[in-house]
Amino acid sequence: MTSSLSAPPSPEAIDLAPRLARLLDGRRVVALAGAGMSTESGIPDYRGPETARRARNPMQARQFLTDGAMRARYWARSMNGWPKIEAARPNPAHEALAALERGGLLAGTITQNVDGLHQAAGSTRVIELHGALARVRCLGCGAIEPRASLQERLIAENPSFYAFGTTLAPDGDADLDHDAFADFHVPACLACGGTLKPDVVFFGENVPARVTEAAWALFDEAEVLFVVGSSLTVFSGYRFVRRASERGVPVAIVNLGPTRGDEHAALRVDARLGELLPRLASMLGARA
Question: Which amino acids are annotated catalytic?
Fold first, then answer.
């Protein structure tokens, strides 16, 4: 992979990186990553400055599980959004976190993202709070199918729905030109014929207990909690900031725009992650 860590930083990154470096240096750091990490890879978020003006309602778990029409709508839109998710590549912010981990400066990353870009950048200790779009799980037998494999079946069974619209939306969704999905065929589980669901946590669902336990175990190693690219609106992420505050663990937040956890932050930085994190990694001696 070609590193972007040497890209020229903005004046803001030059000014603010030293303050972050002083807070993180010599301490065991755990990162809590949100959707803002991936916006520079072309994946939209729900609450960033560029998406607030075109806010949309995310898929609710209850809708997906109980309403066949909503399920068909989800898969039709996902079929058109998936190619761009699959083609997305890590940006300099992902590369910087991976470099910090390789250098022993970052214990690991708890991520709210479902795009797999942390791992693609080389991060190895990643707890995916909300799952991964690259996997599909059967609600009946629990069988796992790669999302790329399901994509082939979706297109084969619904060719007239493919490429109706290609504007990528949050969570691998896509904006289609119409909203009539009565004729869309949702493929079933190859093992048992059951209902397939992306292996992600929809709004209204709980993070699986085993994932929560792994995330807390990593969090317990933190001497600094480093929040990157999250508004912390969703409680599954915010609770780590609240626990850090209760324990007296310093919290550093880098995000474009305000966050729910700002009052708990020892240091709050409003800057682009793709500019600031590579600068920070370089200052701390991490190399891609």
Answer: 130
Beta strands in the chain (DSSP E): 29-33, 106-111, 126-128, 131-138, 144-146, 167-168, 174-175, 196-200, 224-228, 251-254, 267-269
Split at pLDDT 50, 70, 90, the class of 3 is: very low
Give me the long-range contacts of 238-241 (CB less than 8 A, separation at least 24): 240/32, 240/110, 240/215, 241/32
Condensed to tens digits (0 to 9), the pLDDT of residues 38-65 reads 999 999 865 555 544 445 567 899 999 9
- Average of per-residue pLDDT across 22-31: 96
CA 29/CA 42 separation, integer angstroms: 27
Beta partners for 108? Answer: 30
The pTM score is 0.88
CB-based contacts of 97, cutoff 8 Å, min separation 6: 31, 33, 37, 106, 109, 118, 121, 123, 228, 277, 281
